Structure formats: C-alpha cells, structure tokens
Amino acid sequence: MQTIVVTGCTGSVGGAAVKMLRERGYNVIGTTRREPHEGERMLNLGSLQSIVEFVEKLKADGIVVDGLLNNAGTMEKSFGRNEDGFERVIGTNYIGTYLLSRLMIKAMGKDLRVANTVSLTCYTAKFNKDFFRVNEENYSQLGTYGNSKYAVMLFSQELARRTGNQVNMTDPGVVNSKMLRMDRWFDSLTDAIFRPFCKSAEGGATPAVNAVTTDCTMQLFRGEKHQDVPRKWQNEELAAWLWDETENQLKLKGIIL
C-alpha cells in the first residue's frame, strides 16, 4: 500500500483529500499544527525546526512515503512574522512548502510524487525580486497571499526541472471553507451571497487527489481536468532566481540543502 503525506489535514479541503485517498486504498499520514490524532503527525509549516524534525522522524521510523500533497496554507489579515523572522504568509505557504518538498525528496528519492497547492489569486500576483522584502507598509492580505501562491507555481516547475521528480500543481478553486473569510466587514455579505455558489470541500480536494496520484508531471489540475501550466505563469529565469534566493534565505537560518 502506497503512503501519501497530506499537510493541513484538519482543514476542509485537507480533510476531504485524506478521506478520498483512503477510499482509493492509500495509507495517509495527515499533518496538523494541533494535537495529532491517529494517523496524524505534528507539523507546523510556519516553523523551519518543525519541518526538519518532521522529516527526520519519518526517516527514523523507517516510513517510505510515495506522495506529498502540500495542502496547508494561511491567509492573514495583518502583517506579522513567524518564529524564523519570515512574513507569516510567505513563511508558511511558500517557504514551508519549499523546505518540506526539498527535504522529503532528499529523504525519499526520485520516486516521490509532489503536488503543490496554488490559487486563483495568481491572476492578481505582482511578483518580483522584492518578494522576500515584505513589511508592514507594503503588506496586503490578498496581494501577499497571491504572491506566495505564484511563488509556489514557479517553485513547482523548477522542482520538476532540477530534481526529475514528478511534480504537479493543484488549484482547488473557490471552496466553501474558513479560508474564504478575510475578517473584514463584508464577510457577512460574502457568506449570504457568495458561499452558496462555492465548491464543496470534496470538489476542492478532487484536483489535489488527482495531482498526487497521477502518472503525469508539470501539470496544473483544476476540477477533474489538467493542463500544461499557462505560459503567463512560466518564467524559467525568475523561477531559477527564486530557487537560489530561497536557498540563500535558508542558509542564513542555518539550513543547508
């Protein structure tokens, strides 16, 4: 039986993905920042130490992982930094995804399949080489989130190119979940008008499950279908810069990949 790690298993999409994968016959290890239950392990993607310890514990326990579904993510109303000094959204959504994927491939080898979660907000991203220089003045709840997901899009393509591993991206679409709330005055209007038309958790999880179990690579999964990454989201020069600069950022924190 193949084993797949699903991060953020207590969220609506993550929980649905775990259920669907188990129904398909996979052994699933879900990760959570809370107290883990049976079949779950503790992992905080906003903490470099937690990520390193998670992978080391898998190796020490002799667990062979066949697939990694990077589902966990966060959207924050206001600016803040995590314990490592990174802006919280970028630290969790992008740097956490980057480090966990790199360490898992290092531990499990070329047979590991990786699926990374991106977002419709990539359409609004204004991504450039100031990506890591987020501060209280230039922070934007939706803008920073969109940039973090665009970074995941670039990283996923570069990860496939540099490692030869099977790497895909999954876009859940607009799902009726807690992530939809922005803690703003218009949330009640959104709940009444917009939520009834949003996807179910299962609908958002379907492309994720397909992306981590497929035989293809470098594909963007949406709904029941997949496609090549749109050209507007392909930039090999920027992706290479992002990869190298992220390594440099991690070196400053004492992590050598």
Provide a brief overview of the structure.
This protein is of the alpha/beta class and 257 residues long. Helix content is 42%, strand content 14%.
Structure description:
It is a single chain. This protein is of the alpha/beta class and 257 residues long. It has a single domain, classed as NAD(P)-binding Rossmann-like Domain (Rossmann fold, 3-Layer(aba) Sandwich), CATH 3.40.50.720. Helix content is 42%, strand content 14%. Strands 3-2-1-4-5-6-7-8 form an 8-stranded mixed sheet, sandwiched between helices. Strand 1, helix 1 and strand 2 (27-32) form a beta-alpha-beta unit. The longest helix is centred in the middle third of the chain and has 23 residues, at 141-163. The chain is globular and about 45 Å long.
| Largest sheet features | 8 strands, mixed
Number of helices: 7
Note the gap between the termini: 30 Å
Rg over C-alpha atoms, rounded to the nearest angstrom: 17 Å
Binned strand content: 5-15%
Q: What is the CATH architecture term? A: 3-Layer(aba) Sandwich
Structural class: alpha/beta
Write down the secondary-structure element order: EHEEHEHEHEHHEEH
Question: Which stretches are poorly predicted, pLDDT < 50 over at least 5 residues?
Answer: 184-195
CATH class: Alpha Beta
Shape: globular
Number of domains: 1
Which homologous superfamily in CATH is the superfamily? NAD(P)-binding Rossmann-like Domain
Query: Could you name the CATH topology?
Result: Rossmann fold
Q: Within the largest sheet, what's the order of strands?
A: 3-2-1-4-5-6-7-8
On the 0 to 100 scale, the average pLDDT is 91
- Helix content estimate: 40-55%
Number of strands: 8
